[in-house]
């Protein structure tokens, strides 16, 4: 256009144009320029209008103060009203809560101050549905005057996405079965309660449903799930509302409660007792009135005393003690008792190393014939730990710890191997005059499926006849449901090993005919023997013992006794029919060379 008009003005053929002729030419130039610029502006305006109207995103054009001038159809549909109803409202009027209104106000200020874009997720008001989660963008459009700014609001629907995120977050921190917070959520809550600046008292309660496996296996997992929901509801009803009570399901049938504030142990114990009583009330499911009991471990302390790990450990120890004490009860954490237990647990943790380092040795208890106390009937072999710091430790001090750490079987294997090695040495010296060795089987070794193979390997290794070995067990070991103890003992008896049963009453004795046990000896133990350790035993005690011995003879059993303290007690037992005994009345224990000397002095006849 410029070139065309330049050519026209230049082509004057050497004639200077007068103003009246030049003016029309310039006007024509101006009209032409305006026409072309207007054409481009109209096209851009049409395209913007079409985009604004067709956009799936809600858009509102506002004046410099934030008043809505125009709103597109998408925004009206998103907020449940016509665009016309939005005109004249202020942008901040769309916020649903005071917090959202303040954020819209802050966004407008930032855009006016030069920020290109402000974005937030917030709640806007929907005409019919109430609150709606949206992603909001505030931007700036240049005005028709230099420096003027017109805000534009752009809104997209985030409700479904937000609700999905909320559901996922809820699932991440809540137990899907009971709806309670889960272990992760509980740990976060506990750490926050113990955070910097915490001044409250803290109560942590661990609860565990007693015998839940019986419910789950007996009535089915579906019923078990309903029972757990019932437990969750009862715990929530008791603890929620007290000292910011926070109840969570940790795993399986384990729950935890966190309380904080000004707490007294008596108050916390009262809440726990109420919860345990409520749990005892039957839950009726499918015609079954199911009552559950629970054990609880309680820790109450100031928040500044120790961290989360120490608090959790204390609650777990208290719960463990409650279960050991008979279940269906609570136990308050005792720091002094814990200090003693830590020493015991440290001892249990090093049993494996002590066995490998040769710190264990055999200790023997001789069993003598009461008709001739100078003649040995058998030698009972046990373990002694020669601890480098604590000195000599008896089996009752470390066997329970071995049970906890899984060292019972290695200790039992070592005991059996060393006992048979000693027996082989005695028999090489004395032949058939050497006493039998009696080994009490730890329960965990008795249920071991390789027991028969282990015994046979050791007998063969030391070239011993099976009759040289007596294997002693008690009622609990025989009835242990975890293994085939009776079958193993029957096979060992067929090989020739002598089986010995420790008994304290008629019920124990009757296990022999009931299960057809190939037992050859019974050993009286406990109160039934202690009752004779007085100057004048009661008639009832003598009658009870007489009945036991009579029944044992009917079963063709040889009767011995353990724990015999005095010669008078030994004499009474002999009069009643006991043929052999061991205990302090003859010699409490012997080790190493002592037992060799004892055997040489008192060979078996």
TrEMBL record:
<dbReference type="Pfam" id="PF08448">
    <property type="entry name" value="PAS_4"/>
</dbReference>
<dbReference type="InterPro" id="IPR001633">
    <property type="entry name" value="EAL_dom"/>
</dbReference>
<dbReference type="InterPro" id="IPR029787">
    <property type="entry name" value="Nucleotide_cyclase"/>
</dbReference>
<protein>
    <submittedName>
        <fullName>GGDEF domain-containing protein</fullName>
    </submittedName>
</protein>
<dbReference type="InterPro" id="IPR043128">
    <property type="entry name" value="Rev_trsase/Diguanyl_cyclase"/>
</dbReference>
<dbReference type="InterPro" id="IPR000160">
    <property type="entry name" value="GGDEF_dom"/>
</dbReference>
<dbReference type="InterPro" id="IPR035965">
    <property type="entry name" value="PAS-like_dom_sf"/>
</dbReference>
<feature type="domain" description="GGDEF">
    <location>
        <begin position="200"/>
        <end position="335"/>
    </location>
</feature>
<dbReference type="Pfam" id="PF00990">
    <property type="entry name" value="GGDEF"/>
</dbReference>
<dbReference type="InterPro" id="IPR052155">
    <property type="entry name" value="Biofilm_reg_signaling"/>
</dbReference>
<dbReference type="Pfam" id="PF00563">
    <property type="entry name" value="EAL"/>
</dbReference>
<dbReference type="InterPro" id="IPR013656">
    <property type="entry name" value="PAS_4"/>
</dbReference>
<feature type="domain" description="EAL">
    <location>
        <begin position="344"/>
        <end position="603"/>
    </location>
</feature>
<dbReference type="InterPro" id="IPR035919">
    <property type="entry name" value="EAL_sf"/>
</dbReference>
<dbReference type="InterPro" id="IPR000014">
    <property type="entry name" value="PAS"/>
</dbReference>
């Amino acid at each position: 256009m410029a070139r065309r008009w330049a050519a026209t003005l230049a082509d004057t053929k050497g004639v200077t144009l007068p103003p009246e002729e030049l003016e029309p030419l310039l006007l024509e130039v101006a009209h032409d320029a305006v026409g072309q610029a207007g054409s481009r502006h109209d096209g851009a305006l049409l395209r913007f209008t079409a985009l604004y109207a067709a956009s799936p995103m809600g858009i509102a054009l506002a004046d410099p103060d934030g008043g809505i001038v125009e709103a597109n159809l998408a925004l009206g549909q998103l907020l449940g009203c016509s665009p016309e109803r939005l005109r004249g409202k202020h942008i901040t009027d769309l916020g649903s809560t005071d917090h959202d209104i303040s954020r819209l106000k802050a966004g407008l200020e930032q855009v006016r101050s030069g920020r290109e874009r402000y974005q937030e997720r917030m709640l806007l008001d929907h005409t019919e549905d109430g609150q709606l989660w949206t992603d909001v963008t505030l931007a700036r459009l240049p005005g028709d005057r230099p420096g003027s700014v017109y805000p534009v609001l752009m809104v997209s629907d985030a409700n479904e996405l937000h609700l999905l995120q909320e559901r996922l977050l809820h699932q991440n921190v809540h137990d899907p079965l009971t709806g309670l917070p889960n272990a992760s959520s509980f740990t976060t809550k506990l750490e926050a309660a113990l955070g910097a600046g915490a001044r409250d008292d803290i109560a942590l309660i661990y609860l565990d449903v007693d015998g839940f496996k019986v419910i789950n296996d007996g009535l089915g997992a579906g019923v078990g799930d309903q029972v757990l929901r019932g437990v969750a509801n009862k715990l929530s009803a008791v603890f929620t509302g007290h000292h910011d009570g926070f109840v969570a399901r940790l795993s399986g049938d384990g729950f935890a409660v966190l309380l904080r504030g000004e707490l007294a142990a008596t108050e916390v114990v009262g809440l726990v007792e109420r919860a345990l009583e409520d749990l005892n009330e039957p839950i009726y499911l499918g015609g079954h009135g199911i009552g559950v009991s629970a054990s609880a471990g309680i820790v109450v302390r100031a928040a500044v005393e120790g961290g989360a790990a120490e608090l959790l450990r204390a609650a777990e120890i208290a719960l463990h003690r409650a279960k050991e004490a008979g279940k269906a009860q609570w136990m308050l954490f005792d720091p002094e008792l814990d200090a003693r237990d830590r020493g015991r647990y440290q001892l249990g943790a090093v049993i494996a190393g002590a066995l490998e380092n040769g710190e264990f040795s055999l200790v023997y208890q001789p069993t003598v014939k009461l008709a001739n106390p100078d003649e040995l009937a058998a030698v009972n072999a046990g373990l002694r730990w020669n601890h480098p710091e604590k000195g000599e430790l008896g089996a009752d001090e470390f066997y329970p710890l071995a049970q906890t750490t899984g060292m019972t079987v290695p200790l039992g294997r070592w005991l059996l191997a060393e006992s048979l090695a000693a027996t082989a040495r005695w028999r090489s010296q004395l032949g058939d005059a050497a006493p039998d060795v009696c080994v009490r089987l730890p329960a965990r070794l008795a249920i071991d499926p390789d027991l028969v193979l282990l015994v046979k390997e050791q007998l063969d290794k030391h070239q011993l006849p099976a009759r040289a070995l007596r294997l002693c067990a008690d009622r609990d070991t025989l009835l242990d449901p975890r293994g085939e103890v009776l079958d193993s003992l029957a096979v060992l008896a067929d090989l020739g090993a002598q089986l010995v049963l420790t008994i304290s009453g008629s019920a124990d004795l009757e296990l022999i005919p009931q299960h057809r046990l190939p037992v050859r000896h019974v050993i009286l133990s406990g109160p039934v023997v202690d009752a004779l350790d007085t100057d004048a035993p009661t008639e009832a005690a003598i009658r009870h013992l007489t009945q036991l011995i009579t029944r044992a003879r009917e079963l063709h059993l040889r009767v011995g006794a353990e724990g015999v303290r005095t010669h008078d007690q030994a004499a009474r037992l002999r009069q009643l029919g006991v043929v052999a005994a061991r205990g302090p009345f003859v010699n409490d224990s012997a080790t190493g060379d002592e037992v060799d000397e004892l055997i040489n002095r008192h060979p078996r006849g």
